[in-house]
Amino acid sequence: MGSARAGPRWRNVKIDEAFMEGKIVTAVLDHEDLVRTLAHPDESEVAGLDAWWRANNYLTVGQIYLQANPLLREPLAPDHVKPRLLGHWGTSPGLSLIYAHVSRLIKTTGQQAIYLAGPGHGGPALVAAGYLEGTYSEVYPRISQDEGGMLRLFRQFSSPGGIPSHVSVTTPGSIHEGGELGYVLVHAFGAVMDNPDLLSIAVVGDGEAETGPLEGSWKGISFINPEHDGAVLPILHLNGAKIAGPTVLARKDPAEVRKIFEGHGYDVIEVSGDDLPGMHHRFAAALAESWGKIRRIQIEARRGGWDGRRPEWPLIILRSPKGWTGPQVVDGVTVGGTWRSHQVPLSGVKDNPDHLRMLEEWMRSYRPQELFDATGAPTDLVSGLAPAGDLRMSASPHANGGLLTRDLDLPDFRDYAIDVKRPAIGRAESTRKLGELMRDIYTRNPDRFRLFCPDETNSNRLGAVFEVSDRGFMESVTSEDVKISRNGRVMEVLSEHSCHGWLEGYNLTGRHGMFATYEAFAMVSASQTIQHGKWLQEASHLPWRAKVPSLNILLTSTAWRNDHNGFSHQGPGLIQNVLTQRGDVARVYLPPDANTLLSVANHCFRSRSYINLIVIDKQPQLQWLNMDQAIEHCTRGAGIWEWAGTDDGTSDPDIVLACAGDVVTMETVAAARILKEKLPRLKVRVVNVVDLMILPRPKDHPHGTSETMFRELFTDHVDVVFAFHGYPGAIHQLVHGRPDADRFRVRGFIEQGTTTTPFDMTVLNKASRYDLVIDAINNAHRLPSGASAVKAWCEAQLEKHAAYVVEHLEDMPEVRDWSLQDWAES
What we know:
Strand order of the largest sheet: 12-9-13-14-16-15
Helix content: 25-40%
GO molecular function: aldehyde-lyase activity; magnesium ion binding
Strand content: 5-15%
Number of strands: 22
Family: Belongs to the XFP family.
Number of helices: 29
CATH class of the largest domain: Alpha Beta
Organism: Actinoplanes regularis
Structural class: alpha/beta
Keywords: Lyase, Thiamine pyrophosphate
Cofactor: thiamine diphosphate
CATH topology of the largest domain: Rossmann fold
Radius of gyration: 30 Å
Distance between the termini: 72 Å
CATH superfamily of the largest domain: Thiamin diphosphate (ThDP)-binding fold, Pyr/PP domains
Shape: elongated
CATH architecture of the largest domain: 3-Layer(aba) Sandwich
């Protein structure tokens, strides 16, 4: 694997063949001997662990406080201290202790491991770890392992032009920022799916453990199969406090806490104290026991000796003081072990001589002269703990998953096409065709593709995947269960947070997938979508971060078609959230039918480092384009449907009817049909948009269409009546800066909903075909005679509809059965 001092080999796509094949370095027969060795470190090993831990703590404190004198070669002075003291100390010593011991585990066993720090504000501890391992200097040569590099390490932390205080995307070895608490376990579980030899160390902070997403994510062990998945070792770090008070689990009776996690199915191992070297011995024994149990589970499963029951995976509860080894009493107030050590225990260092003295005593208590040599590099006692090359957690290719990414073996999406002879004649459930495509992607990619869906795979018409894979489930299975087994790889759990987070972990370690959910409930995990977008945005500026498979999100059961569900199921808000992401990350697609959906999905599955949001309903819908037309349409992102309007292209139309979204596309074409029949001299252009991001200017988004093409679609002065799937403000936001943007009159979802008929939803939100015709008449540049009568007819139709649905409990036949069959025959 190379030495720890080797150059940045791990940045290359070429990874050792043994690593790619996932071979465990340790022979199986040595497993029990290794556990015994790990459990009983000798004096020299404990000395090395303690030296590394002290060095990491020293570097952590230095990042928070110092802008000069990094090795304390002279007495500390106020000018050596940063003008703004930012960062979080309280959780950092515990994070460092864990990191040191896991590094020893890796070096002893060859175990491939990544480290996910749930307490994201422990950023300086993980930055320090990468620095001590040498990876940080490989990635950022300016931050060299010498006195000058150490100074730059300190000065950059939480400073302008530097790095964030979180374990962010800039931190080598990280796939989990942790700034927004609650997702460390779901990321860890996603990382090990189809990754059989990876161990995810997931440190859960006791403040984070109070969040809803984290509370739901303990169930991840109910979905991990030791035959083909890796393992997650959760370490619940109870240090007693969060920012300003105690935490729930830290104040509970330890026996009660143990019952909670045993109830989830974990084999709980507890470690507590603050005595040294006692804590090193106890934690080494706990980690050895945990790793031994994990390996026994995996060896049994992979040798065929497993009875199929869900294993009792180990979980460590680590109790250590908050702010361990830091100041205990400041200005007569207890700080150590309390919430007061959460951030900056000594806040008046520049102006208070006592605080300055305490800071110097604190830093010198780590005995830096033993830890760093005359040049400022880590001594052999410290650097000797680190594993070699790619096995360093800060250098693991699993934490830079684009290095391990293999393209999907995709079938030809054209083979799943619906035969469309004429537009809007036949109906089909478009997402069924996507399900068929994903079925065959599963078959071709048994180790790098999964669908994640909150108990809705069949509901969303994606059930074809069950022809080749069951739902994965490690709890008991009964005879009444359908397509559920321990070997399944379709992931269903009724938690948007878990499904979304599992896919993020899966993507960030180099594998592909899709998260499918009901549109309204995508808002449950919307913040995760935003946070992932921020990660991708920042990663795009780091040349050493390899691009990863895109986060693909499919929204169905949309706002416009919830025949038996009510207002709670009607909310297209995720579109708005994704639009706020930077253009180098955000993509929003609104395919109107099956063939455009297949074309879009093919593109998304091939893409890298995007958030691809696809929105289409699951109900039977009219089909508009044959496959060749769909490919051309999706390639352009939008197009004029000449067959739908009365615009001959020789001059500007009188009105442009535009649409984006399946239901509103039908309403728009129906509106154009009404105008064609009743006002044939009105020149109507119909424009359908499938890629929402063609609407902004090119300088605002990479997909933004040129001024010439935008003018060809929408002219530069004719009014546009735009029927949109989501909130109307989104279109106004996107066309800002386009010629005469005020001419865009947008109809969309305006928070009017209930349990009602499909057409009534469009009426309630003033986006029905009749409303669109009225809008066209009100805004057309030239009106032929008879327009007033058509407008009155539309108003009468709306009144007729209102009475009909109440009496008959369904839409009027002329709406319910509408198609262009009569046009095709004429």
